[in-house]
Amino acid sequence: MTIGDETTVIGTGEVASDEPDAVPRLHFTASASPQALTALNSLSARYGNCPPEQAEIIVALGGDGFMLETMHRFMQTGAPIFGMNQGSVGFLMNPYHEDDLHDTLAKAVEVELHPLKMISTCDNGSVVEGLAFNEVSLLRQGRQAAKVRIVVDGVVRLEELSCDGVLVATPAGSTAYNLSAHGPIIPLDARLLALTPVSPFRPRRWRGALLPATSKIAIEVLERQKRPVSAAADHAEAQDVNTVEIFEDKSTSIRLLYEAELGLAERILTEQFSV
Question: Which one is catalytic: 64, 100, 123, 189?
Fold first, then answer.
């Protein structure tokens, strides 16, 4: 069965979870790459593949982009997600291996993440909302630099920023686009957000800020007709935005599973010492 760019093989061999020594029901899902599809078929044949609505654990096979897609798709199920790298980067993924998967899952460490909520008001009056586990980013749409005003908890902190864009990143997303834009890496339990400019032009010396995770950030686009700006929250996008509100959505969460010695917190901490 194919859904979007995801291919899912439905197999048999499920074990009822109410048995005393039962193993968890697994749903395997994979990106469209040949490598991921081969892994999907192999794991499904070995461990069975139950429908996602019956699964106790979702196993995602692909790269970081596919992991984000899987997180959004299965967020409402409440099932934790265990990713195995069959892509190019795999920072959010565990190493791929087929042996002893049930034992690996039984020993896995759980991490709970809350996404950022983006509420974008566009020039045509429409409102676009989205959730982001990595970052909410605003980028110029045209040849001229964007001009924005930054307001934090109702206080204007930067009257005018001329730049290619600006983003707000979670700790989990601080090693992604945020790091490429020279933003800080944030430890997973730091309860902070990174506010990072993309190619700032004026003021030249401003390199961003670290904000409490409870902050409510509003970014107002200036000279909108001359300098249009788009906004994106992971996969949700808005064009010609007027204002964008960003805050942590505590009512929504996702659970990720990692091998004990390769937890997400440890990966983020280790990334700070990479050379």
Answer: 64
- What's the length of the chain? 275
Sign of the Cα torsion 131, 135, 136, 138 reads negative
| Distance in angstroms (rounded) separating the CA atoms of residues 152 and 207 | 16
Instruction: Extract the tokens encoding 246.
Output: 């960003």
Q: Which pair of structure tokens corresponds to residue 150? A: 């930054």
Q: What CA–CA distances, in Å, run from 177 to 1, 25, 104?
A: 33, 34, 30
Number of other residues whose CB lies within 10 A of the CB of residue 118 = 28
Q: Is 240 in the active site? A: no
Q: What domains are defined for the chain?
A: 2-113+253-271 (3.40.50.10330), 116-248 (2.60.200.30)
The alpha carbon torsion through 204, 207, 212, 215 (nearest 10 deg) reads: 40
- Joined together, the tokens standing for residue 14 give 């499920």
Per-residue confidence in pLDDT tens, the chain, 275 aa = 333 334 333 333 333 344 435 789 999 999 999 999 999 999 999 999 999 999 999 999 999 999 999 999 999 999 999 999 999 878 999 999 999 999 999 999 999 999 999 999 999 999 999 999 999 999 999 999 999 999 999 999 999 999 999 999 999 999 999 999 999 999 999 999 999 999 999 998 899 999 999 999 999 999 999 999 999 998 899 999 999 999 999 999 999 999 987 789 998 999 989 87
